[in-house]
Amino acid sequence: MLHDIATRALRGVDPERAHRLGIWGLKLGLGPRVVGPDDPCLSTTLAGLDLPNPVGLAAGFDKNAEAPDALLRMGFGFVECGAVTPRPQAGKARPRIFRLEEDEAVINRMGFPNQGLDRFRARLARRAGRPGTVGVNLGANLDSEDRVRDYTTCLAALKGLAQFFTVNVSSPNTPGLRTLQSSGALDELLAAVAEARDAAPVFLKIAPDIEDEEAAVMIAAIRRHGLDGVIVSNTSITRPDTLKSPLIGEGGGLSGPPVFARSTDLVRLFRREAGPDLAIVGVGGVDSADTAYAKIRAGANAIQLYTGLVYHGPGLVQRIKDGLAERLQADGFASVSEAVGTG
After folding, report:
1. Is 43 noted as a catalytic residue in this protein?
2. Domain count of the fold of the chain
3. Among the four residues 4, 162, 189, 287, which has the most C-beta atoms within 10 Å?
4. CATH code for position 295
């Protein structure tokens, strides 16, 4: 595929510049376009949202909601934009993205760089009424004095413009942000979010580095405040012994295949603790139909990817969908929902 060849060429370019070139190309209409509907067995429902397939784009790629429709045309079943913060911010100092080529992984310490809520909202407003499921990842400014208010400010301003929202308390690159995952702080945050939200589903995005016993506490808080699901998980501050790249000492969050095992174990744990009804999105190391299917069998209703695109190109989306359809049919499942939690 021509676009996959272009992706390989961009791996010779600085990661952040390559990313901007990718967004620029999508905005110009140069991205791939999937022709024809998805296999009917891939159709599924996530927290009441009807999706043509369970393969989503994780937050971090389209930080400023510049190209959600072009990304949907690539074949994604849903796209999550952001993270957005109330005020524009530059994020951490560069360099801040590192490709671990030997591991097909990435370390980033971006720190939520984005153009701010006003420009983000204006872009979503311009696409109002268009088809497709587009969500928003909510963040807090690096220098914020009231992070709870940052989340609710963004949520209130974007009501009616997105199909779902994600409360991101799991990025390792905003100092102190992960403390919002602790029980008291989480209750305060989710209570405020519950008051500010509308009918659109709201998810909590958690870190892969939590202790197993924290899963039950988080699920209880999600239920107590009426959230709709959990995204498992974000990037990791751990560095597995299996890493081969000389860049393992760089600070930031690790993504890609090295986090697959832990993030999938957490999907299984959250499904076991939550039962069948809570919506779970599995993220972390999805780079093939096999890894996507493993997340679903572990308990994910849908999956998201990002790092896999860096190494395998946009054709990965269709390859995963084709492979999922084959695996569902081979195992006797008529739909994605029948396979959830069966592994």
Report:
1. no
2. 1
3. 162
4. 3.20.20.70
